[in-house]
Amino acid sequence: MPGGHEEVEAAADALERQLDAVEGDPTCALCQADADFFLYEPHRVAKFVCWEHVSPLSAAVDVPISESNRPVALPVSEEFR
């Protein structure tokens, strides 16, 4: 996962809280497909998106949170974490 240790822990905690709050599987906030990623930036963005709606233009993929002005994309599935 990208970012510093504290940033990674905060993002992972936010993802777990959001997963706990969802009944069933999470869906994309933009198209209602199954969610593949959780976009997260403290105090700004916390939403699920599908693979079609996560991109280098909308999320910081493999870039430390502190080095980007975009939210980090965390995989929703345990398989990809």
Task: Explain the overall architecture.
The protein has 81 residues and is an alpha+beta fold. Helices cover 21% and strands 17% of the residues. It is built from 1 helix and 3 strands. The chain has one helix at 5-21, and strands spanning 37-41, 45-49, 72-75. The chain is globular, with a radius of gyration of 12 Å. The model has no long low-confidence stretch (mean pLDDT 78).
Structural descriptors:
three-stranded antiparallel β-sheet, alpha+beta, 21% helix, 81 residues
A few lines on this structure:
This protein is α+β, with helices and mostly antiparallel strands and 81 residues long. It is built from 1 helix and 3 strands.
Number of strands: 3
Helix share bin:
10-25%
Low-confidence runs: none
Give the overall pLDDT as a whole number.
Answer: 78
Structural class: alpha+beta
Sheet-strand content, in percent, reads 15-25%
Tally the helices: 1
Strand order in space, largest sheet: 2-1-3
The radius of gyration is 12 Å
Order of helices and strands: HEEE
Taken from the alpha-carbon principal axes, the silhouette is globular
The count of domains is 1
Reported for the largest beta sheet, the result is: 3 strands, antiparallel
Intertermini distance: 8 Å
